[in-house]
Amino acid sequence: MTWYIWLLIILVLGSLVGGLMMVLRTAKPLSLSEEQLEEIHQREREQKEKDDKEARQY
Fold first, then answer.
1. Under 8 Å between Cβ of 40 and 32
2. Distance between CA 25 and CA 22 in Å, rounded?
3. What is the DSSP string of 4-31?
4. Can you give the pLDDT at residue 58?
5. Helices and strands per DSSP (H, E), number in the chain
6. Is the confidence at residue 20, as pLDDT, over 90?
7. Cα of 58 vs its chain's centroid, Å
8. How far is CA 47 from CA 36, 42, 44, 55, in A?
9. Where residue 28 falls among pLDDT bands split at 50, 70, 90?
């Protein structure tokens, strides 16, 4: 391969790694209240019940 293909490969890989590092650096956990967490868990339970009901129909 010629030198400019290697340069292009290095630039592409560097951009990918840099982008991933930026995403990891800026990602922050969500701070949810207890009420919000309970609503999420309630929706998960409802969806699981709905999925189980649909699975039994087939």
1. yes
2. 5
3. HHHHHHHHHHHHHHHHHHHHHHH-----
4. 74
5. 2, 0
6. yes
7. 31
8. 17, 9, 5, 12
9. confident
Q: At 41, phi and psi to the nearest 5?
A: -65, -40
As a whole number of angstroms, the distance between CA 30 and CA 26 comes to: 12
Q: How many CA atoms lie within 13 A of 23 on its CB side?
A: 6
Return the residue matching tokens 């969806």. Answer: 47
Residue type, 53: K
Instruction: State which amino acid sits at residue 33.
Output: S
Q: Which two tokens stand for residue 23?
A: 């995403």
Q: How far are the Cα atoms of 6, 11, 44 from residue 25, in angstroms, in the given order?
A: 28, 21, 29
Q: Where are the domains of the chain?
A: 3-57
